Amino acid sequence: MNRYELTVFGDDKQLAQTVAQQWLNCLDSAERAKPFLAALSGGRIARTFFSSVASLGKGKRALFDQVHFFWADERCVPPGDPESNYRIAQELMFTPLKIPENQIHRIRGEEPPQVAAVRAEKELLGIAPRDKDGRPVLDLIFLGMGEDGHVASLFPGESPIDPQKEPVYRPVRASKPPPERITLGYGVLSAAKEVWVLASGSGKEDALRESLRGNASTPLSRVLRDRGNTRILTEIQV
Known about the structure:
The protein has 238 residues and is an alpha/beta fold. It has a single domain (4-23, 35-234), classed as Rossmann fold (3-Layer(aba) Sandwich). The chain is 34% helix and 18% strand. It has 7 helices and 9 strands. A 6-stranded parallel beta sheet has the order 1-9-8-5-2-3. The protein has a 3-stranded antiparallel beta sheet with strand order 4-7-6.
């Protein structure tokens, strides 16, 4: 039985606009009395997606009053660096929607990686509810997918980590530049109420098909096995 819901779009713009509208619908139906915790990712589709959220969210600013923004991963660069996942979101979504700074919980990529990871973990644990295993529960995590099937900054070939000892955030060395990064672990991805994977871009066809088989070694495949259900949103024909 599939542990995912697959939706294929005509192109990346349709993908971004539709998913942005679906997220706004989700926020509109969310309980307003408590925070809505979302984690963002970078990648090629992020720019189009963030711009779509900002465009569709104009005039609906109240939908974001309880949204707290975290990150699935971040590059170890200053916040103004072109490689910063935070910078993309700040320019294309937070500034246009006038999101208050106290709702934005960026990973401080300019700090030593271990220090930044511990700080990010403390900040998330300070607001998120926890599941029976003590893991923070995010309402929605947005992920991209790389050509090798990586998600967040979880790459193929990483040494196994004891799930009971896996930190919320940890420094990793990526197989593509910039190499120093900080990422959420598999446990937090598994514990999230919802995970939406925006798989977009050429060169990713084989990785997506392999990941959807269910027994592949890609990080995305592991996420799908660990969760009860995950949404895959793509313009890649599979």
